[in-house]
Amino acid sequence: MCTGRVDLSFVLRAFSNGMDGVFLGGCKYNDCNYGTQGNYHALNMVLLCKKIMEHIGLNPDRLRIETMSSADGNLFAEIMTDFGKQVKELGPLGKGEGIDDLVLKSRIQAAADIVPYIRLVERERMRIPVQSQEVYHNFFSSDEFAKLFKETVIEKLVDSQIISLLREGPQTTGEIAKVLDLTPSEVSRHLNSSSRQGLVRYEEGRKCFALA
Amino acid sequence: MLRNDYGYGKFKNVVSSLDYERILSPSGAYEGEILRASDKKHPHKIAWIQCVGSRQVNPAGGNSYCSAVCCSYAQKQVILTKEHDAEAECTIFHNDVRSHNKDLERYFQKAEQLPGVRFIRSYVSIGKEIPESKNVTIRYSTPDDGVKEEEFDMVVLSIGLNPPANYQALADKFGIELNSHGFCKTSLSNPMEASKPGVFVSGSFQGPTDIPESVYTASGAGSQCGELLDYRRGKLSKERIYPPERDVSLEEPKVGVFVCHCGANISRVVNVPSAVEYALTLPNVVYAQEQLFSCATNSAKEIADMAKEKGLNRLVIAACSIRTLEPLFRDTLREAGINQYYLDMANIREHCSWVHSKEKEEATHKAKDLIRMSVARSSQLKPLQEFALNVNKTALVVGGGVAGLTSALSVANQGHEVYLVEKDTDLGGMARRIHYTLEGLDVQEYLHDVIRRVYQHPLIRVYTEAAITETGGFVGNFITKVKAQGRVTEIKHGATILATGAEVYQPIEYLYGKDDRVITHLELEEQIVKREESLLKTRSLVMIQCVGCRNEDRNYCSRICCSESIKNALKLKELNTQMDIYILFRDMRTYGLKEDYYREAAGKDVRFIRYEAQDQPQVEEAVDEDGRNVLRISVTDLILGKKLEIDADKLALAVAVIPSAGSQEAVDLFKVTTNQDGFFKEAHVKLRPVEFAVDGVYLCGMAHYPKHIAETISQSYAAAGRALTLLSRDSVVASGAVAEVNGNDCISCGACITACSYGAIEFVMTPQGRKAGVNPPLCKGDGLCNTVCPTGAIQLKNFTDEQILSQIDAAVAGL
Questions:
Q1: N or C terminus of chain B with fewer C-beta within 10 Å?
Q2: Which positions ≥6 away from B194 have C-beta within 8 Å?
């Protein structure tokens, strides 16, 4: 199997399990063992995942991708030592970021839940022709990407986070807004669309939202 | 062969390169640590002396030839030394740097650019041993400072290759002749053919040879034996019978864990008994034991026996990398009557003991983690079936140069039909422009004979002026469309040999194309053969080497040009002993036995002037003292340290060999790859030098890398030999670890189809409608399809989401 086989859901599962850092090592770019440039797929996934991590409050430095050949033993050792040091400095997952364990788990779960959706969006709109690492980095830090990311992944992620929260029990708009660090009107907008899709319902009696 | 003059055997800290190789080895005297014999301390300042016993002007006690491999192996030793100790100071004292093999020019640069590494071009002599420190001094000279004496902690002598010790007895026994150096005398057109029919040689008995060439001359010799013995092929082979496979799909997982000591490679660091004890505590593990060498025949039998006795249905071998031994342990499972895919290997050697030798406790902990992850995955494994594919016995050879002709003949001589496709109107390729070799082969006579044999061969079908329009299929079953003379023919073939050749660089440098007196080395050869008048009248001729390569645009050595220039220089001296010939070079790369001709040319007064890459020769049109129009070539003489001006009547450029357009077309059609210079990329430089990563497709000749005719012939026989290992079988086995679609989950989005570079997935009509379907023989198991599928409908078997997630979960379970 190729680095390109490493799935967004694998990385999220590792973080969800409490891993403090995830490292991906692959063949050098343009020197793919399979001749399929799968390592660019991996780079695409990693850059996207970093954006998701940022959004849910995880330090994106906890995820790292590097490429090397089988003759680069010393480089590998150097990188791993460096990454190990870096992850130690970041501290345990969540603690370093100042997020409560349960909140963190629920946020990662919310992201994991929309992986199928992310795959579709990634394929349609966030995959660029294989050229060079630089092109990838530029794309993922561009305004164009930021806008796209906000309109697609973040939108769905908020929906998913709300549903994840409601799994714990019914909540009011205000409570949800506080946990997700959003304005109540934004939360309302998401709740309205989710309720139209039949995912959530409003409990008149308790004046709060619950899973449908 | 070492004489005393380098202090070997006298000074403790002078070692041979072979001694040093052992020192670097984990199984060497110091277990992979670099230590000095005198005080068992790490040396920090190490010197390499090149050409020890090789390239000697007075060969008494040494050899006159170049050993061809030492430049690169010394660079490797430097790189490894720097990996051991980044602070180490490494100095290489060398003559010409001969990095004439594929990708080795870059390797040389890699070594040269490491901090603390010096390459010093100088003859040296060993000074003395310092009594207190046992350090050794080396005297050498530099252009700036004159002779210097410098102290080193350790000195490595780059010794060369000799013929085998008992070469005369060997030759007598087989009735074959030797050459003047004691290597086997071989045919000018076939380096594997000894002087007695039916006796073939491969590897360094032909003369100093590196590993890739040794491997392909072995395959080539094999193919020629095949030509003689084809009528008996398969008569002695016996099919292996395995016990019937037990159906364990309804049983609970019963995992057996075998933890290997690997001699002491693992157990020196990892506490193996403790790992075994731990394995027994894991879910589904019913048996665990340790073994000294799990890969030993008796150990493999022990594993099979225990599996039967304990009723195991999953095996975890905690040992080394799957890259080396997975096939062996799969076989062990089959011997035990278990499906071979019920195996997982925990790599506690490369991934653990070798890299954590200083942290024994943590390494043991990590070994346990790895075993736990393997056990978790093994419980999720599914039995997979490999399947047999029929093999079409026909071969397609693309390219009708020497490479294609040779391999086509060898395949056909072993009873297989061959289709030979050439884009030109005539067969022969680049060799049509070559008339003689350095060693004296009459190339045109040879070529005509080969072409005649190809046309007369009843099993070879030749298409000239032909183009391949389309190709598809997979190992053993390819279909290719060839368009020739307006007709399209569909060819079904089991194997493909790509011999698409190379081209020569069209120079823009040195007034080429602007002044008729500036020609390429190929044009010079043409003029020599035609005895062209302008050439016969030439009083002074200059050759410039490395035109168009060993530069930023083409960062490789074209390998053949040094010998080509010497070949032409010697011919010119035959025509006119009075002609002044100058060769301006960067490194003369007359490797191996070709060194003799370099010496011969120097002896005949061919003048060799070295220049540096950053100070290229300059050429201008000028008028000399006698009023003749000349080409004035100015170059810095590095020995005298001043500009020289040479007035020449002719300038021959040793231009680069560049990849052919045909190779690029082949890349697109046959889904093969090239290296960054555009030459075909073999599956493995040393282990599979004539095969592509794509099964059933082979390569040879200059499309792989520039090479001399004899070398091309060796490699072409090798490609034929490898193709025969496929074509001689009735069927091939394809891996079971391929992608599979669950039609119920497939939403026909096509994501997997676009992700697959092998064209292994297509839409197929099923009772549930249009769904993605995998053509297993085309699937290489990279798993990209799996990652893009929004519904998880397509799964890479043996690496399914479930199996990998189980490992990820198990990774934390012990924390």
A1: C
A2: B174, B176, B177, B184, B185, B186, B200, B201
Helices assigned H by DSSP within B140-267: 167-174, 211-229
Angle at B387 between CA B316 and CA B475, to 5 degrees: 115
According to the model, what pLDDT value does residue B397 have? 98
pLDDT band at B3 (very low <50, low <70, confident <90, very high): low
Give the model confidence (pLDDT) of B553-594 as tens digits.
Answer: 999 999 999 999 999 999 999 999 999 999 999 999 999 999
Task: Collect all residues of chain B within an 8 Å Cβ-Cβ radius of residue A82.
Answer: none
- Dig out the tokens for B651 from the structure: 């300038």
Distance from CA of A84 to the nearest CA of B (A): 14
Chain A contact for B479 (CB, 8 A cutoff): no
Across the range A107-119, mean pLDDT stands at 92
* ipTM at complex level: 0.93
Residue where a domain stops, chosen among B322, B355, B386? B386
Same domain, B516 and B630: yes
Give kind and range of the element (H or E) at residue B199: none
pLDDT, residue B814, reads 66
- What are the structural domain ranges in chain A? 3-101+116-157
Side-chain-side CA neighbours of residue A58 (13 Å): 31
Spell out which residues of chain B touch residue A13, defining contact as CB-CB under 8 Å: 805, 808-809
Rounded mean pLDDT, B697-708: 98
**Cβ-Cβ contacts under 8 Å for B527 (sequence gap 6 or more):** B519, B534, B535
Structural domain that includes position B746: 738-796
Nearest to B354 by CA among A87, A83, A77, A68: A77
Confidence band (pLDDT; 50, 70, 90) for B4?
A: low
- Model pTM? 0.80
- Answer with the one of B623, B642, B657 that is the final residue of a domain: B657
| H-run or E-run covering B812 | helix B801-813
Q: B647: helix, coil or strand?
A: strand
